[in-house]
Specification:
AB_hydrolase_fold; alpha/beta; AB hydrolase-1 domain-containing protein; Carboxylesterase_BioH; 379 residues; 9 helices; single chain; eight-stranded mixed β-sheet; 30% helix; signal; disordered N terminus
Amino acid sequence: MKKKTSKIRKWFNALMLISSILCIVSCQPKSKKEVSTKIDDTNISIQKQGSFTVGGAVKTSPGTFDPIKHGVFNPSNQSQEGQTLHGDHAFVWYQIPATPKKLPLVFWHGYGQSMKTWQTTPDGREGFQTLFLKRDFSVYLIDQPRRGLAAQSTEPTTISAKTNDQLWFGIFRLGVGSELYPNVQFSKDPEALNQFFRQMTPDTGPLNIDLNVKAVSELFDKIGSGILVTHSHSGGMGWLTAIKNNNIKAVVSFEPGSNFIFPEGEVPEPISYLGGTLKASEVPMSEFKRLTKLPVVIFYGDNIPDQASEFPGEDQWRASLSMAKLWKETVNKHGGDVTLIHLPEEGIQGNTHFPMSDLNNVEIADLMSTWLQEKGLDM
């Protein structure tokens, strides 16, 4: 019995010695070199975030405001005498990471959309706002004037309630009719499509390109140098903003659809498509040359035909891609630096008009990151 007890005690003492040694090793403070500074992929460290408006106008009604006579809210018969209306501004939401890169990314949505384009995807995954924040870029998301959170307009309009979900389903190249393309990079969960349709946003005033360009230019006046990221309809407005503001150091454009600008005397012939004609715009060479001074990358997704298509939703993007190729050639001919990436030609299949929120949006973000790195824009 004594021999057995002695043996147990020896084992116990040995275990205690080993535990003490392990504690001494593991409890020693790490040197500064050994302490990891890498931010956990599942967390984001943000030093500052918030929102503000830029641009806009103040509309004033004639007369004198009487706080007693006119101070009672009456929707059916409200006097406007001497009162003002603040509107036509852009709304901006921003986040700045703990260790931001030098140049922030400014994200501008397309037609019928809002900053939701860049936020959580319709099927609930991280959008470009979060993906690039995790890559240490400060991010600024825009709702352009008379849209979304910038809805206050100084001019009236009529907001219709047309049943046109299927029209946009085709134009945004999710599929044909109500059927998704077989290879599409969009979730087949019906709830994802429900969420997608519900992110459509109406204009609360007449669409005014000059107003939009002015507001976004004022944003760059406020924040300084940055990279403009556009989508669809904001692509054309993006070129105009880049001409206007030297703080734009590069442009990333996803599927620009209209308003390609060429120098005087070099405007290509209009390109016809089923249901319309795509025409380019003309600017003086002195303005056009600004576009040759900054790097530009353009991305187009899948299911854009090479030849005329019987489906209008596809055919209009055939025209846009064709015009984009002509635009690239013209800018580069004058010393510019435009890269055009047609994703299927890179072996990336199935992308819709919204590559930034498709199922493979991380892969698309990686392509954009690679381009930014190649151009020295991710420092």
